Amino acid sequence: MFKKELITVLRHALVSFGALACIASPSITQAQSWPDKPIKLIIPFAPGGTTDILGRILAQQMTTIIGQNVIVENRGGAGGNIGAEVVANAPANGYTLLLASGSMMTVNPFLYKKLPLNYATDLTYITAVAGGPMLVSVNPNIPVNNLKELIALAKTKPLTFGSAGIGSQVHMAGENFTYSAGIAATHVPYKGEGPALTDLASGQIDFMVGNLPAAAGFAKSGKIKALAITSSKRVAQLPDVPTVAEAAIPGFVNMGWFALAAPSGTPKAIQEKIYAATQKALVSEAMRKSLEINGLTAILDTPKDQLDVQIKNETANWEKVIKARNIQAQ
């Protein structure tokens, strides 16, 4: 009798265990099979800007590494918030990713009264990808040839500066520059860096502090006048252009950076696969050359924990600038 009861108990236990295994198995199977279909990489700005340039380089390399197409989709507007919302609301399965500019995570939470997402809880940050300096430039009709002349002009007449949108790192770099230079200028936001540079070249706005990859081509072709680079040293792409510190504002440095994110709740095993594939892409010879040509540097070995600390530190710094300049967005 006891033997029959024991067998019955064991059978029930096995059935229960099997049921639990069935419940748990989808996420395990999902992680093991990832990726088994194309991946969408959301670029939260218009085509032609640095986020777009970097995203297409990264997508090309990751396509080769993971064996599935990584498809770039531009969803610009609202300082990157529109694209970020798309990713935050996507299934947390590793098939929708976001290439975010640093400002989206460190600036937007303070700048916008209402956000369509919570950057701290609705996204998970996988790794930093790349970073680089920015370029202070003016439209070809502005009667200045160096940074000191631009600052002097801004003290005699109202000037405008463009950006990739309110809260974008191009916007904040412009605010940081005007704040450090002790000048006032009217901000003109666009849906991306590309459209802003096009208007700069056509004389619709006066100056801009844009990411080097997007701005360098305009400068080399003479469509805009390059005045200074925001790094601590001059760059190979524009060796005759001085740093801001050399030209007018000692100690000034302003670097842009970009990171890869996924919807919150994405399985850790999938995050680890994305991280590994990204690191492999960043050390590839093809990507190294592409980044170098565009004035960017790969940011290696920055897993989620390190990136979270970086975001926290930069958030505190930008909060001061936002309050000092009384910058607000709707």
Name of the CATH class of the largest domain: Alpha Beta
CATH topology of the largest domain: D-Maltodextrin-Binding Protein, domain 2
Q: Quote the average pLDDT.
A: 89
User: Looking at the structure, what is the overall shape?
Assistant: globular
Query: What amount of the residues lies in strands?
Result: 15-25%
Q: Quick one: how many beta strands?
A: 11
Task: List low-pLDDT spans.
Answer: none
SS element count, helices: 13
Distance between the termini: 75 Å
Domains (count): 2
H/E series? HEHEHEHHEEHEHEHEHEHEHHEH
Tell me the helix content: 40-55%
CATH superfamily placement of the largest domain: Bordetella uptake gene, domain 1
Structural class assignment: alpha/beta
Give the C-alpha Rg. Answer: 24 Å
Q: Any guess at the CATH architecture of the largest domain? A: 3-Layer(aba) Sandwich
How are the strands of the largest sheet arranged?
2-1-3-10-4-11
Q: How many strands, what sense, and barrel or not for the largest sheet? A: 6 strands, mixed
Describe the structure.
The protein has 330 residues and is α/β, with parallel strands linked by helices. It folds into 2 domains: 141 residues, D-Maltodextrin-Binding Protein, domain 2; 114 residues, 3-Layer(aba) Sandwich (D-Maltodextrin-Binding Protein, domain 2), CATH 3.40.190. 47% of the residues lie in helices and 18% in strands. It has 13 helices and 11 strands. The strands form 2 sheets. A 6-stranded mixed beta sheet has the order 2-1-3-10-4-11, with helices on both faces. α2 packs across α11 and α2 packs antiparallel against α12. The longest helix is centred in the N-terminal third of the chain and has 32 residues. The radius of gyration is 24 Å and the shape is globular. It starts with a helix and ends in a 5-residue tail after the last helix.
